[in-house]
Amino acid sequence: MNMNRGKLIGVGVGPGDPELLTVKAVKTLERVPVICAPKSSQNKPSVALSIVRGILDGRKDEHVTIEPLFPMIEDKKALKSYWAGAAELIINELDEGRDVSFITLGDPSVYSTFSYVARIIDDQGYVVEMIPGINSFTGCAASAGITLGEKDEIILVVPKVDQRLEELLQHADTAVIMKTSRHSQMLEEIINKDPRDKTVVSVQNCSMEDEKVFDGFAKKGKYLSTTIVKFNGNQDH
Ligand SMILES: C[S@@+](CC[C@H](N)C(=O)[O-])C[C@H]1O[C@@H](n2cnc3c(N)ncnc32)[C@H](O)[C@@H]1O
Questions:
Q1: Is ligand 1 within 6 A of the CB of residue 113?
Q2: Residues 89 and 141 in one domain
């Protein structure tokens, strides 16, 4: 075994604005020899890569960027083969003693492709670390100027709109719903069914140049869309 193997570092790059990177993320991206930037399509640039472009362009030393493809498909078998392919690319670098930073939108521990690839690599005995990032929904709350939780309020975070939502909402004072570009109609119906007074805010492309903050539901969606619902009635200040 090569005792000088590199380590894999999942680096959260925040929701979009490069000023929302942590100091630790910046220092790591200025130093690691390999940047792994996942992209969802051959024709579209990696969003995470565009966030750190300024840091990488400012580097004088040699570094490489690898961009494995992670298409947005549901087929589990096909997805697994993409994860395995990306893990192999990364392991090739680690075996040469090079650290690899896997950049991920928001935080690497929150619904990120990083976790699937990291598990494969971790299972093979490599060192895997994470640098947390500002996640998309706290970024969205800041852009919308609302707080997510106060006192004993319960914050619910769901990765997509599906039938589980209706029941889960009953326990939530605030609901964060991700990937709302899909099933936006279903989301609206489920939220409207809840009899409580509520404030609904949607944020698209949070903290990016084309950020949009809507009152209510965002009808036609960009992929980077998040809806926050605050149920009123628990704020007896
Ligand atoms: C695969 S998840 C990635 C979550 C990310 N790891 C995080 O920590 O926030 C993708 C979803 O996160 C939300 N998201 C990520 N970045 C966003 C942004 N800049 N603006 C609004 N929503 C965003 C959207 O709901 C999007 O569909």
A1: no
A2: no
